[in-house]
User: What shape does this take?
Amino acid sequence: MADGSIVALLDGTLVDPAEPLLRPDDLGVLRGEGVFETTLVVDGHPRDLDEHLVRMAGSARLTGLALPGPDRWGTAVAAVVGAWAGGSQMVLRLIASRGPERGEPVCYVLGAELPASSLRQRRSGIRVLLLERGFTVDVGASAPWLLAGAKTLSYGINMAALRHARANGADDVIFIGADGAVLEAPTSSVVVARGRTLITPPDEAILAGITVRRLFRAAAAAGWTVRTERLGAADLHAADGVWLASSARLLAPVVSIDGRPRTDGGLTGDLAELLQMPARS
Ligand SMILES: Cc1ncc(COP(=O)(O)O)c(C=O)c1O
Assistant: This one.
């Protein structure tokens, strides 16, 4: 199979990843309609799979998509994990494209090698730019059609922001709302530390991050204070540490913001331990 990737349908059948799976008139292709989840499989164990299945069901509800139940997804995940012959860390994607007009959604699971850039960024950190996102945090309630909290296949804006960052000497982005509020990154949540307190923005108009939730659960159990709080750019600069957290890359310390170098306060190791980051990362 091409480049070692593995693809399974929800009945557990493996299909060739080099062969087309979607029709040309699939609304996922035509309009970015569909939902997905990404998680990491470490030594054959998918992280937080149940939480990802719950969030995908929520995204499907928000987009009016009827998806197969968690057992069916579990069958495909097991097939991909069972067939995996690559490294110890695999990126696992659960994908539901809306399918053709009046057709059924096309659902599959894709396993692929964790990119070397993710491993590097866990270790060496990331330079971020603050970019405007063009809405305020209240759109979650006032404009639900913007699907602010859903994980949909429409990631064109997020990818454009990342390209902008890379063209301007940075690795990643933190989106800032029209009112100056820190939101999230194109594929991650934002976490800051003030002493032994971890803070993340409330998930009013952003994706409710599973990695942050897991980090905060473990941190609270270990005696840290954790809370959500509206943050501005000045809070990022003043914090003891800033990280981007997501299911595949897990945790990357921010080493500069808009070209201004910053440290992680020596805390990345502690947070990585709380998150049970794989040792070989
Ligand atoms: C826009 C956005 N925000 C936040 C996250 C982090 O979420 P999680 O930790 O559940 O992967 C992601 C990752 O998928 C994302 O795409």
Q: What stands out?
A: The first strand starts at residue 6 and ends at 9. The domain at 6-114 is CATH 3.30.470.10 (D-amino Acid Aminotransferase; Chain A, domain 1). The radius of gyration is 19 Å. Residues 49-62 form the longest helix (14 residues).
